[in-house]
Batch of 4 targets.
Target 1
Amino acid sequence: MLLMLPTLAYAQINTERVMTIARNALYFEDYVLSIQYFNQVINAKPYLFEPYFFRGLAKINLDDYQGAEADCNEAIKRNPFVVGAYQIRGLARIRQSNFDGAIEDYRAALKYDPENLVLWHNLSLCHIQKKDYEAAKEDLGKLLKISPRYMPAYLMRGEVSLQQKDTLQALQDFNKSIDLERYEPDGWGARAVVYLAQGRYKEAEQDLDQAIHLSARNAGYYINRALARYHQNNLRGAMRDYDLALDIDPNNFLGHYNRGLLRAQVGDDNRAIEDFDFVLEMEPDNMLAAFNRGILRAQTGDYQGAISDYTNVIDEYPNFATGYYYRADARRKAGDMRGAEQDEFKLMQMQLDQRNNAQGSSQGNRDVADNAADSEAEGEGKTRKKSDKNIRNYRKIVIADESEMEQRYTSDYRGRVQNRNVVIKLEPMYALTYYEKVSDVKHTVHFHRAIDALNQEKILPKPLRITNMEAPLTEQQVKFHFALIDSHTAAIVDNPKDAKMRFMRGLDFYLVQDFDSSIEDFTQSLLLDDTFFPAYFMRALVRYKELEYRKAETGLLENAGQQTSGVHEESGVTAIDYEVVKKDLDNVIRLAPDFVYGYYNRGNVFSLLKDYRAALADYDKAIELNPDFAEAYFNRGLTRIFLGNNKQGIADLSKAGELGIVSAYNVIKRFTELPE
């Protein structure tokens, strides 16, 4: 018993050391790496609450809200008195729009820590999200009693007052926030919004000058200042602000649309067209942008382009008289007299209808067409809300809708892996190879007894690895494998009945990208020994890669180098070709029913054929055989999302991220974005 004590002490110290390393990684925002360490602690001591809590904290920083909530559930089961667990779970629930659940968590946490400002802050935001403004004001009042100088509470209460149309109270709170924190840009920006709504454009511009001075990388401040300048007829200044906003946020809709309008006003037609081109790429159905672009195209001599835009607008708004007037003009200039006369006849009919309805006018077609638009523009001012689709407001500057207030509980973390723009596609097929890329996060060693036995025979030039992260060969390795092909060829001549020698040369051909020779050698290996499943496995992989190469070679992939789902008849690749791949994998599974990678690869083939139910069955089996198979969770998650089951899909992606697949967090973020 005494001899066992050092071993037990070592295990205890080792667990504590891993926990310390994990928390250091969490502190320095290396969230994915920290999760791997927390996994080790949980596996060693599953009764502890700390690793679940801190793993939940790491996950929430990766926008894995379902996973964070699940970990906090486990932490609270083990210790229901930890305030932080309720706080993190509440935040995870907020991000999933479960505001009632978050309110329960914050109220529970406040029983143990009644003066926690963050808890009161987030509780108030939950009430705001539910539009329970009285409850929000009540909680903010309690918060300000605890901390009268807590500036964000004044900002939130001011925003609540704005929602209640109480601009005087809002101004008081925003003034107070500026008095407390003059070097905080949010107060200046919030007060400027009130001034804009009141028509106090000069004061709004001054406040936005201050906000921009304190936070020069906020595109919204430039957008708002451009609006203030526009109302003061400072078009050049407004355009400069839109330029600056688009430098910061190149995809900003308001920036492109409004800059296009201003460029058109100052005669910069070609660059105005560029802005509307961008808007229409973002929103192809935006008829107001299409009509503006049509006018600009006509002014630059592109009459056919203008006619196309006008036609799209008229198809959507068949009673829009202005559209017929402009299209008639463009058709006449393009030499389409018949088309122009048809449009003019339509205008005449509309004029007669107006007269018959006692709404006629003695003006000409141009006046008839513009009368309604101009009167409406004059009556409603120079701006319109983004959600306003009234085609007659095409000349108006766009302003943001009154959306839900900004949620200030989110922060911008440095180096957040989920913000890396990854392509949403399946994790790749597994292969048997000698070379594997090194991952900074995932250090799984894939094992199967048959492959290990093959390595133990010492007939291979290098240990065979099971991986889906194949490393490209260096120049020296290429030379090495060409030399091996020669030596293996000589050995095959001496012993043509050696199935494993054929398999080894097939691997060499595969590594030097000679797929046809590789398939031939794997086939010969199987003719010599039809029970040698690694040859079936590799022949399936090489055939699959050859089919993908053929599709890419014909230019049918949507993006160069990216896998696309589906089969392309035009490339000569059909579902029958993939059936051949699947048949090889069927044989792998028949000969080695515990070889998990056979199910995984076959699941990928089914998914590519869009047989998602069959793919799910294979991923289920792979996970049954190996509950820590990260790639199977990832691909099953995507497959479930393809079938419309987002909740279960995100749960699988969360598990994949937990097991080390970094891109899972980016995919989770895309499918859990809060509604605007």
Target 2
Amino acid sequence: MFKESLSGALMCGELEFIPFTVFEYGESHGDYTEILGNKCYHLSCETKEYRDILYITECASGYTVKREFKNTTSDVMHLRELGITLKGIDFCAKTESDYYYHLETPRHFGTMTFTVDRVRPKDMLRIGTSPFQPFPAILVSNYNVKNGIVHGTLSQKVFYHNYMLSHAENTLTMEIYSSFKDISYREVLPNEVLVDEWYIGRAEHADDIERVFEEYTVHLRKKLPANYGATSINRDNMVWGTWNDGITRSVNETLILTEAKTLKEYFPTVRWIQIDDGYCAFNENIAHGLGVPYEKDEGVDKVKFPHGMRYVTDKIRQIGLRPALWIGGFCPKNSKISRERPEIMADYASRRTQNYLLDVSIQEAREYMTSAIETMILDWGFDGVKHDFWSYAFEVSEPLLKNNYASGYEHRRWWLNEIRKRLPDDGYLQTGCDIVMANPFLGTHFTNYRYGIDIGSGKWSNIKTNFLWGAACFATHTGDLFVPNSDAVGMFPGLSDIDARFCVNYVLITRTMVELAGKLSEADKSSPRFAMLKKATCNVNNGQDVYFAGYDYRADGTKSPDTLYIRTPHFSKQQRSGAPMITVAIFNTEETENKTLTLKASQLGLDPCEKYVITDVWSGEQYELLSELDFELVPHDSRLLSVNSSKGRQIYDANIELTDINAEENRISARTSYAMDDALITLSHLPNTVLFDGKELEFSQEGGVIRISVPNAGLLEIVF
């Protein structure tokens, strides 16, 4: 009965649904009894060793499943994984065109999709086993149809899900595994119950990357509570960090405090100063974090920080910003703690040859980790943490830990809770490596996730790579659960003007403007790049939905979308009359060829019968859009464009955040969010008077642009 219902719901063949269990000694296929209810099914199996019950609930697009596995013996059991075999998948199309889409695929292979029969490397035969914390769902479909099957995780308390796909007799078989991170098996105590939860359903828009997982995310949001990732931390403000744009480990007390004063003066949306790697006395150019407190007073470099870390955090607060700290999650093999305490270390030599991990399965290691984090957060006085190289002891799909009483995910919850307990409620926790591919379960503790490679002082190849990885992350439309972070924007001394603009446009349009970098105190304040940076950071709205226009991820799997848009002005979080309806960015990632990109009103959610005014955000050039408009882009070129109605009084552009915009026949009013000496606002009509909080404000004008000095947050009125 359930199998018949499953086949009808998923609409892709006569399906067989076969649960199984894998122990250290081998695989077990028990006899499962089906119990029927109203849109509810129980599959139950009881043997001499275990009881396995699957509670299956029918929903609009498929099923949610809660699986409870219990050790019914009096001995400790060694459980390797739970599994489901789904046989008979048939999309009624040529099987050589069957494919899958999983967010680890662009990260691993630089392409969005893989055909089922394409050979994968031997160490990656299973899909979803990467350490890159991918969005926990998979689509299986066929290039010639629009429907597919989606499986997605609804809990990461114990298990993670991974997959194997194969063809047999012109149908597709999908193996769904519920496995454990960082251990080869999980010790299950007598009478202990392990719970796994997931969703399986049909995808009716498998051809649209933005809608592939939309049914799954409906159920995902029911499971993920309001969390740190859904607050304003990192959403409406930025972090200046010391790593990128030419500083790296050349950090010191004077530099940090000098930059803090510059940021306070010129960048009102920056609220955090983040001290990255380079503060420790261990000077072998190897990242060193959690082991620093083990060295007590000798751990921090006294030349760089002669007054100590608490002095720096106090000074940052006096300037009016908040301090945050980079913490590495491993210890160099040559460091003091690694030499003196090897018994609490784990070796990840397959990837990290110069470092050990602290083995979180060992009680003494856990005790040291909590004492170290107390020193770094509480004693040193930091309100935010960038946790780099943190994930190996929690996210690796190979056995690393000495003890098997808990999975990597169980240890992950413990460790992140320990950090969160010591941070203030409005402090942030940011992921570093391994780079995250949009796993929203991490948003319960972290407030933003890095999905891209370090840009450093500017490296074009990294920018291009980040573009593809980012597209997969943004297409899930889960920025409300977990803020994506593109890595830092800055003055980019290593990039040409055109490449620097590309990077800024990309970070701005994707609403991933979490980090700023570089020695901004030394920058030419009158330069176009400095002005661009100020304007790009004027209104931070990280996690806002970004949409793709005309992107076929199945046909163009190795290319990034070339047209992205948001449904607000770039300078406001609200879409209001008298302001841009959308902001569009277009990109040419080609190395040698020019590219003609066509803006189509219908693909941008606009009425193709209406006329619109297009404004280039950086040059001020304007164009008319009626149905379609072409732009010619040279290699690496990009454009950031505001789209306004052609009717009535309009604000076309601004370099200051404006809220509550209201356009009337002879007046536009808006609220400013902060003070700015040199605010520029581009208008459709020249004003007669400008008022601020009811008092007349001096202004100058050049063309359609007015220049004003905004004294603080308040009500701005432009009278025509």
Target 3
Amino acid sequence: MAKNMVIVESPSKASTIKKYLGKNYDVVASVGHIVDLPKSSLGIDVDNRFEPKYIVIRGKGDLVKSIRKAAKSCDKVFLATDPDREGEAISWHLANLLEIPEDRKCRVTFNEITKNAVKTAIHEPRAIDKDLVDAQQARRVLDRIVGYKISPLLWKKVKKGLSAGRVQSVAIRLICDRENEINAFIPEEYWTVDAHLTQSRKSFVAKYYGRNGKKFVPSCKEDADRIIADIDGAEFTVKDVKKGKREKTPAPPFTTSTMQQEAGRKIGFTTQKTMSVAQQLYEGVKVDGAGVAGLITYMRTDSLRISEEVQALARNIIAETYGKEFITPAPRKYKTKKNIQDAHEAIRPTMPELTPAMVKDNLTSDQYKLYKLIWERFMASQMSDAVYDTVTATIDAANHTFKATGSTVKFAGFTVLYIEGTDGEKEKEATLPELNVGDKPSVKELKSEQHFTQPPSRYTEASLVKALEEKGIGRPSTYSPTIATIIARGYCVRDKKLLVPTELGMIVTDLMKEHFADIVNEKFTANMENQLDEIEIGNCNWHEVIEEFYPKFSDDLKKAEEKIGNIELKDEVSDVVCEKCGRLMVYKHGRFGKFLACPGYPECRNAKAIVKETGVKCPDCGGNIIEKKSKRGKIFFGCSNYPKCDFTSWDKPLEEKCSVCGSMMYQKMGRFAKKYCPKCDVKEATKTSK
């Protein structure tokens, strides 16, 4: 029988750690929290300094008994739950259930699940950090009070199943406020005038700047036509050439927030999927030649700190792979933002020597994509700056000024490995021919084009996470569940990558703004996060934070109950007739977007997906191929004559026929897709529209 017991949160983590510690250790999993506030009641004693009333989570009674029994026969019990507030709270609850004294050194934490890190942690236990526990309790109590007090009000006044939350209500407000900005936006017309010029047989474009040295933006066609008329036939002369050097610094290694953003931009992962796959990489994967190991450090962090040992290893790998000129003279240090807890490192590979190519065969497709992203981002963060030679030429024609800018790569630096993604289209910088003062490039074409100013774009999951982080709302662990919740509640839907508020989301947000202004106030919520941080470092008492918050909140709640009348939500009516009862079906919003439902519910429960035609005929029966969604929300294509015809395909069927065999061509899904024929070897790369 084992002399020591180690309790972790997940079975997969337990399995990995067991392999490191050997037969003298029994490693068991609590499978997350073992106690929590009851679901059936508030579970907080508002008259006794808001003390929480914890109960063993339903279904975990047998697990608790088995852990208690096993612990009695062990010499030592180590609590090795995740190294954050939630993990500390789980360890505290376990210590209480196992009657472990508060001052006993039983808590072990590791930033990475590797043999060395785990063994070192076991030999350096500490007492449970009660400040960390109090910060988690304060957050849990705050969220419970807000959720359990406002949600029933929304059920009664608007619709059953709704919810409000300290972070989620601010998140949906951001989405709704952005939609209001878009709807209120009035586009303004403007024109551009470009001169397509040639110098030394090389073509380049100079953009219109203004007249007589003063900047001017044409606001109508007449302005643009006037400029072209003035310079038509005029001689273009280079008046000034400014050459310079620009250095570009690599992005720092990932925090939770930046990982979620970049995974959304570059590999199309939702925040939820990113965190799920990151958890798998952290907890342990079997790798040929390395055994079972966690491939990345802990994935819930907002620190940019990196271990000096690993940094030195990464620099050696870079120097050996690319050359010494690709590392900086001294190791890079990235400055972590103010008020960030620096307990963990940034997200990095635990073993930088394991390149993505080396572990590819041991990983699922999703695991490989995310590991590659994390590995490349980390390694690039330790590399030299990219250096560009820049040139700006000022070119005059008939008192009108044009400017041409360009750059060339002088030294690629970190860009040989990694280039950070962007939320929008990035304009490509041109390469200019050699230009000198006095040169007179010839004119190929003068071109004017009409434009309109654009409204702000809707949030994507990546840009919403960025906004929440910048405003200090929520913490790394909250972004993913927050977005999942507002979609699940029907407050917004994903339209491709964009988050679009529903009518329900707009109504609930307007109610919250009117009656619970503090809860949806960005600064109020950010300040509350700061107070939780102060509790964590022992500067603030958690009871006092709740006592300060509750009186005004309670008063707002009473007023809202009196003032809010019943709100009737009207569903958008479609032209699709319900085949069961004859009513016109209405559009509803669900977890995976819009669907059709009968308004006669509960008498008629008919519901179905919205049919999206592809315009392509089924190769098996000649029916229409339509776009469908799987139970997990993944798009696939099938025949409209199902179940008589069972044709399905994950790839998009095309009208285009194969030039070799005449069979139907298909197209892979994704930004850079490939057309292919499954019956022969015809393939064609194509960039799909966004």
Target 4
Amino acid sequence: MSANAAYRCLGALARQLRASGLRHAVIAPGSRSTPLALALDRTEGLRSWLHLDERAAGYFALGLARQLREPVAIVTTSGTAAANLHPAIAEASLSRVPLIALTADRPPELRDTGANQTIEQHGLYGRHVRWFAELPVPDGSPGLEAHAQRSAARAVAVATGPPAGPVQLNVPLREPLIEPGWEDALEASSEPPVAVSAPPTRDASEAVAALLEAAAGRNGLIFCGPANGDLPARAITKLAAALGWPILADPLSGLRAGAHSLTHVVEAYDALLRSPGFSSDPATRPEVVLRFGAAPTARPLLEYLANLEGVPQLAVDAPGGWRDPDATVTAMLWADPAVLCEAAVAALSARHPSSFRGTPDDPARTAARTQPDRAFLERWTSANAAARRALAEAIAALGEPFEGMPPALLASALPDGATLVAGNSMPVRDLDSFFPVTSRRIRIVGTRGASGIDGVVSTAVGAAAAGEGPVVALVGDLSFLHDLNGLWPLRRHGLSLLVVLVNNDGGGIFHFLPQRERAAAQFEDWWGTPHGIDFEGAIRSFGGRLQRPALGEWREAIEGARGAPGLTVLELRTERDRNVELHREVWARADAALRELDLDAAPATSASAR
């Protein structure tokens, strides 16, 4: 068999991927994937990114796809190279990020025979992919180029959803893998591109009716969970204004930072719900909850929602999605969130025409509410303002390194258009607790689908590759250590990244768990896991710079490094047991402020005061 039959087929596949909207392909080197790599690399309008490590390459592609909000292909050779994509594929599935895994494979006759570099790649990623298909071995048979095109078109359509997610095309190839004439073979197919129309927007009338029935005459909360910053912030805030409900906004929801209205946004809910007086106050208990995005990051909020017995909880999700890990949702509303919110606001205006003045486009129209009493909203927003002030004052007064300090600094030091990539374990929880609302357009994202610590650096580097403003990663030391290979593309591709590294020499999150007290003798070895590594040498080997700013110099250091070329790492060293004590001290200050606050007399706080 001529190798050029494979090039004809894969040339058609690559051109169709580009015609369907693919602009980027991340390629890990290998022999069996040679025709795939060359086909993609030679396709006009498609940029190829080389990465040496398949596991890190998968997260690089995920970070790039999330940042651009479009599909990205990832190419591997056969065997365990393809298996190394599994963590990123799982994260993409749970976070709904469109990835297209193009996995080269040995031909069928070599499988299950002991052939080198051959594993079972059918169903390799299980139910984590939205769709799996294997291409026939290209052998020059008529129609194979057209079949490859249609597979490529379908792969992009399925990956982009709804809901979005990863797909796998397995590509078996026989030797020879390259021979003279391959360049001409890539251009030989004359098949016209296949067009796939986008699915129509789902009618939201049923979802709107269910929402209005649940909301009528009731005090409610809107919770916006992790969604990679893709929730329609303006539409949700207009709905909150129309209903008169506060919005509890996870930092990864996209509603805690941005140019949309922040009047109804409550971001200090972690501190509020740790305060027994506030969380148990009947006057702050909602009568209905409306949820967007994934489950909360903060455990106090998870427990609060789970304990709202008898309270209807409505979740808005894409058709086919079902985000309800704690089985608290009483109604699943399958609809586009923006369409739902806009239709609900219009329906509320029709129900209460006397509450609206001006034209239909007048922002004042969104001020109509189903309830005349603003006391419920004011209790939440006033308590939020008091807790936010107390947290900021407590952190400023500590005078020693504290892991809650970087989130507060980043909120004020990052410019418009910046992206903040949150590491898992403690960094994302500290963002949830201490990152205040800001009108700056800061996009906050994280790998919260599977919540692994293994690809955060690569995800941030992939985001930097999108070229959409400065990218900052807030990560812990174990996460940084796990993904050092992810730094390699920075120098290779001329990218820039600022890493804020919180180094407590181990697993700080476990100090908040029962293991710390109940398995004290074994704790340090199996959960504390001190590594004793100084990262300076590793950072230099990737062409980076390590700085350890003094306590009062952090803001200046962030502002100076956020636009610097290449890799800059700012390291904050902390002590794990002391970190737990400091968290408790800060939360106690917020609780004290709430106990002193007269919620019945406190005025509502507007976004302008924030």
